[in-house]
Amino acid sequence: MNDVTFSEPVTVVLPRGSQRKVATSFEAIECLQNEWPLWARGRSWRKACMACRNALDGWCSAKAARRRFIKAAKHAHLMPGYHATVSPVWGWPACKTGNTAQIAQ
């Protein structure tokens, strides 16, 4: 099992405000297991964990593992500057104007 380096490090902003650069599949697994918010450990988190482990075992590429890690980070709202259109708690569309009546549209 060899560590697999990403083509470019991924920076995530953790829930307590600290930033972490993730440059390898092993670092990604460590971040997913130890620092990921519990509420965000859903399907995209599981797929990212599996892809990073598969990259370590040579079953998938570093590119695929990095892509899954980024997708999980976006879903968890951990990517700096990324504003998702879904609420992190309920999965409802985010309301840009603050008017909750728009959610029903």
Concise structural overview:
By secondary structure, this protein is α+β, with helices and mostly antiparallel strands. The protein has helices spanning 25-34, 43-56, 62-75, and strands spanning 5-13, 19-24.
Outline the secondary-structure elements:
Blueprint: E1 5-13, E2 19-24, H1 25-34, H2 43-56, H3 62-75
Antiparallel strand pairs: 1-2
Helix pairs in contact: 1-2, 2-3
Keywords:
105 residues, alpha+beta, 3 helices, 36% helix, globular, disordered C terminus
Structural overview:
By secondary structure, the chain is α+β, with helices and mostly antiparallel strands. It has one domain (5-104). It is built from three helices and two strands, in the order E-E-H-H-H. Strands 1-2 form a two-stranded antiparallel ribbon. A hairpin with a 5-residue loop joins strand 1 and strand 2 (19-24). It is globular and about 30 Å long.
The strand count comes to: 2
Structural class: alpha+beta
Q: What is the number of helical segments per DSSP (H or I, 4+ residues)?
A: 3
* Spans where pLDDT lies below 50 across 5 or more residues: 90-105
Largest sheet: 2 strands, antiparallel
The dominant shape is globular
Strand percentage, roughly?
5-15%
Rg of Cα set:
15 Å
Separation of termini?
49 Å
Strand order of the largest sheet: 1-2
> Helical percent range?
25-40%
Q: Provide the number of structural domains.
A: 1
Average pLDDT level? 83
Order of helices and strands: EEHHH
